[in-house]
Amino acid sequence: MRLFRTTTEDALRTVAATYTLDLGLLTQRYRMAYDASGPALQPPFPYAREVCTHVVASGGSNFIVTHRGRASLFELLAAHGMEHLFRDALTADDPYPRKPDPAGLLAMIFRYRLDPGHCIVVGDRELDMEAGVRAGVKTCYFGTDRHATQADLEVRGLAELLDWLIAERESCR
């Protein structure tokens, strides 16, 4: 799983090289297994719903910038009753380069006239942090893997992020 934190393609290349496997066949079989798993077997991270609900209840908005395709993303959100928690999403189907390029994040900031000083990118991968830094917004890394890009906030899980958001809201009153 650690390998997949970078990109699926990198992970598959590494596994194929390490075990002398055919990359094309490995990729094909991985895709078949992934597609067969369905969205019900791909639950959100623990406390993702609570974090997103808190943001919306506090008057904020949640956005998604993902390498996943649009249909797959909205099928996943619908399967877990979370589609109403997101104002918009940029997916692999949109004409933006993949993260860590910040173009997708910057497009959302521009489209919704967001103040970058009031935005935070939350992610569990190095490329999320790098994209956030390059877009000029705050970053929150969640997880325990090592990463090179320093995040503004580092938490082990989203429950800690929820606590931080609640404390931040209280301190602004």
Tell me about this structure.
- Helix 3 packs parallel to helix 7.
- This protein is 46% helix and 10% strand.
- It has 173 residues and is mainly alpha-helical.
- The strands form 2 sheets. It has a 3-stranded parallel sheet, with helices on both faces. A two-stranded parallel sheet has the order 1-2.
- Report how far apart the termini are: 41 Å
Rg, Cα atoms, Å: 17 Å
Oligomerization category of the chains in this entry: single chain
Which residue ranges are poorly predicted, with pLDDT under 50 across at least 5 consecutive positions? none
User: Strand arrangement, largest sheet?
Assistant: 3-4-5
Overall, the morphology is: globular
Largest beta-sheet characterization: 3 strands, parallel
Order of helices and strands: HHHEHEHEHEEH
Helix content: 40-55%
Overall number of strands: 5
Strand-residue proportion? 5-15%
Task: Outline the fold blueprint.
Layout (H helix, E strand, L loop, with lengths): L7 H11 L4 H15 L10 H10 L5 E3 L4 H10 L8 E3 L12 H9 L8 E4 L2 H10 L2 E5 L10 E3 L2 H14 L2
Parallel strand pairs: 1-2, 3-4, 4-5
Helix pairs in contact: 3-7
Briefly, what is this?
This protein has 173 residues and is mostly helical. Helix content is 46%, strand content 10%.
